[in-house]
Specification:
About 80% of the residues lie in helices and about 0% in strands. By secondary structure, the chain is an all-alpha fold.
Length: about 140
């Protein structure tokens, strides 16, 4: 029936992720983006340590896409004001550090980005409800 159990498990995981995304609030989606970016950065560090440059590059690209096309793109400066602007600048800084790590094959910039992502994620998780800050800074996720 299934070609192999690995494909079936992967399909199951994708369905679970898609279901989680569909059911998630805008606040929860931001948490998921932070979690995904952190995982990608941790994988990039692992691949640098393992000497696997192709996988390192893929992981850094994934982290960059999550930060720029997820977190940064979800910001709404018209409603989030200065906080949204500062987060946008921080996301762009993190992306520059990711690119530096990729070009120079260095883990130190990745460790820095990972620390920043952890701090932001921890702060974001402490917000119990999507509230004013969440809806004002990342408004476009609600649409």
């Amino acid at each position: 029936m299934y070609s192999n159990s690995r494909n079936a498990a992967h399909a199951y995981a994708n369905v679970g992720l898609e279901t989680g995304v569909v059911a998630a609030s805008p606040h929860q989606l931001i948490v998921m983006l932070f979690d995904g970016a952190q995982l990608a950065v941790r994988m990039a560090i692992k691949h640098i340590n393992d000497g696997d440059l192709a996988k390192k590059s893929d992981a850094i690209t994934k982290a960059s896409n999550i930060i720029l096309n997820g977190l940064c793109a979800a910001l709404d400066p018209s409603q989030g004001g200065e906080i949204a602007d500062q987060l946008g600048a921080l996301y762009h800084y993190m992306n520059q550090r990711l690119m530096l790590a990729n070009i120079n094959n260095q883990s130190a910039p990745l460790e820095e980005v990972l620390g920043l992502l952890r701090e932001l994620n921890d702060a974001w998780k402490q917000i119990d409800t999507p509230g004013r800050f969440a809806s004002a800074t990342h408004q476009s996720l609600a649409a």
